[in-house]
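A quick aside before the break. I want you to see a complete sequence-to-structure record at least once, exactly as it would be stored in a machine-readable document. Don't worry about memorizing anything.
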Amino acid sequence: MTEIACPGWRASWVNAWLAAMGATVLDECIRVHWTTDAEPVAVLSSEEIDPVDALVRSWPDVELLSRLPIAENWGDAARLQRRVPVEAFATRARAARNDEHSWTLSSTMTDLSVDERGEVAHAPFDPAGPGTIKWLHHRLLKVHGHVDDPAARLLDSLLGQTDRVKDNGLGFDQTRLGSLQDATDPWVDPVIEVLAFFGLALLPVRGRGADRKLDRSADVSARQRGWREIEGSGTRRSFHWPAWSQPLDRHGIDALLDAWNPEREAGWARLGVHAAWRSVQFERRSSADSTRAIGSERL
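That is the input. The structure line, written in tokens, reads:
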């Protein structure tokens, strides 16, 4: 087993945690576990090949990203933008059912939750973007364009030595933001952002499936895996994620996320979980502030 510790990928940083998940999705020979330090970091491993080499060989090119089912234009299917009518989503979902990347639809949107305008709900990890870059696929292509040398960028990111780029990324990384007192631009690690997108493959989104013919406003909130209702809040939810000590591939992680309950700490050790966090939402400065960001709080 070849292993590499990744001090740049802290478990407490939700984007880095998602990126580690994305690494296992992009290359199925990669396994992930987390150190038991006070600040756990990811450890990538593989029996077949150096995990960094595996990620380099599996790094997606722009052609692959352009063919993802979540793309604005995809074959003969209806066009998708930020606002997605339920009929357009259903048509795209049927057309993409046998595509290996069909999860790009089922982990970002759901027609089991439709609003009064007849538009499908977006996942919490698919927030609206600023300006004209308002839907996730456009943001993915934009940040991917910053990775001109995947081999060098990947290693720098793993080691925590990467040069950030001026970009909003996927739109929910708290570390992209500067001081609230300064009019600073957002800066992201593009490798983390691209891999975090692929990590969403393990986080499908659903809804309650209210009959939209009877009452489209019955339930407009999407429910994404890992997001749990905050006790006493009514409708507010936070994302919960664990760190574990045994090397797991994407299928092992999938099983662990099914079995792990953040509210039953007594059962964590049986699953190899030694730490966990929940998300803390960025507090907007005013109702006109469109900033979205996710921080973390250790459980």
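Two observations worth writing down. Residues 14-26 form the longest helix (13 residues). The CA atoms of residues 97 and 103 lie 9 Å apart. We'll return to this after the break.
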